[in-house]
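Dear colleague,

Thank you for sharing your sequence with our group. We've completed the structure prediction you requested, and as agreed, I am returning the results in plain text so they can be pasted directly into your records. Please verify that the sequence below matches your submission; if there's any discrepancy, let me know and we will rerun it promptly.
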Amino acid sequence: MRYGVGVDLGGTSVKMGLFTSSGELLESWSIKTDRSDNGKNILRDIAKSVSVKLAMKGIDKKQVDGLGIGIPGAVRRGVVDKCVNIGWGYVDIVKELEPLCGIKVYAENDANTAALGEFKVGTGADYNGIIFLTLGTGVGGGIISDGRIIQGFSGYGGEVGHMIVNYDETERCNCGACGCLEQYTSSTGIRRLALKRLKESDEESTLREYGDDLTTKDIFHEAEENGDKIAGEAIDYAMKMLGRACGNMCHVVNPEAVIMGGGVTNAGDFLLEKAKKEFDKNVKYIAGDTKICLASLGEKAGIYGAFYLTKM
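Please find the predicted structure tokens below.
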């Protein structure tokens, strides 16, 4: 039997999966991301963990077709120039990891990798082209067109979180710009909108009861279950920005579906209906043709996509 390995490198943990060559997930596991010394031990830790797992399963490395890895940074030809959240500068991932693990290595940006996972075996499996968005602490994304990842000239293709959607914004995004999509549709962005509205208004709101512990989950709960006005306004504005961004992207790429994943989408149909409504307002030629739907693989999208990197 032939096998493959998928690795999803994150700032706090490294998720890994062992697959059959046909794409069946046999086992998944994770290790802590060691960010000490600018992350110099990360690749060595990955290689060690994979080697141990294969040995435990009685699998010879000659039976493994490849190891795919999703990296939290722009990747071009197996090289990443910078990964701030794990301490990396320039790292030739393929050149360094292959001799450590003794397996052919394929590297890609983590959001692109998650998009590939959803495209291959998740919600996107029925489509030939998708835009994938991850709405979490930040906003990431990946674009698949005619079955291929759009990487762009320097690996920044699909970096949808830093699309400017509001030119009147005065607060800066973490990237240094103002008005990025991430400032409104990430979990931190939606919370920021709600807190700003609470500060500017004297209106009664159940959100005030949460104090500094207010979360985006709380905001969705109060808007959906209790009809809180300020919570609703924050979400409506976030969805307005999301609909605007998705409309702009779809007019350029014309995908069959926009698929949304990440922690924010745990709000489910409540979020999806609002996003669809705003999307339809922002498209002219493709309204009704492009589907807006939720991702299905959850946290496993990254390891599935990383495995399928070995098949491209």
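Summary note from our side: The mean pLDDT is 93.

Kind regards,
the structure core
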